[in-house]
Amino acid sequence: MKLSPINNQSESILLNNEEVYSILEFGINQLLVSVQLTDLLILDNWSVVQRISDPSSGNVQKCWQALLPGFNLESFPFVVVAGHETINLVNVKEHTLQPLIQAKNRNIRSQKAAFFMSSDSGFNMHFATHRSTEDRRREDCWYMMPLKDDFTQTLRTYK
Question: Tens digit of pLDDT for each residue in 53-62?
């Protein structure tokens, strides 16, 4: 499959002096773009409308992004983005970024950092973390975090 813009002048963008790590389309002609080192760009119709800076300088290379289950641009505009230090919640409507999970994870070149599974009372987020031990070994841990209906309702209310 080859993607080709209909009009290169109106359906493309050049991001000067930026290294792009990942791109997520969350609406028609609306993109969330992770750029070097910690920032996110929100694009609408191929124009940058907002730059979101991560306050943590170590939370670099946000190579994985996913729509939160139930995503709706008007009523539930949340995207999950994984960096090296935290998994973040991004409100693409209000242009905000907040840490959701304080966990070191390594997702390289858009490898999945997490996945979601439905449950009877909401959904579960599965993710892995890593750390270096005192004897210089790498320890990986797998987690399942239940995000119940009250989590979703709270986000809808206080977005």
Answer: 999 988 888 8
Mean pLDDT on 19-27: 93
Q: Which residues of 69-94 are buried (b: 16+ CB within 10 A; e: fewer)?
A: bebeeeebbbbbbbbbbbbbbbbbbe
d(CA 17, CA 139): 36
Rounded Cα gap, residues 55 and 82, in angstroms: 14
Q: Map tokens 């119709």 to a residue.
A: 45
Instruction: Spell out the alpha helix ranges (H) of the chain.
Output: 149-158
Could you give the percent of the chain with pLDDT greater than 70?
A: 94
Contacts of 98 (CB under 8 A, 6+ apart): 88, 89
If you average pLDDT over every residue of the chain, what do you get? 90
What does pTM read for this prediction? 0.88
Domain map (residue ranges) of the chain: 20-158
Are the CB atoms for 126 and 115 separated by under 8 Å?
yes
Residue 120 burial class via C-beta count within 10 angstroms: exposed 0-12, middle 13-18, buried 19 and up? exposed
Half-sphere exposure of 79 (CA within 13 A, CB side): 27
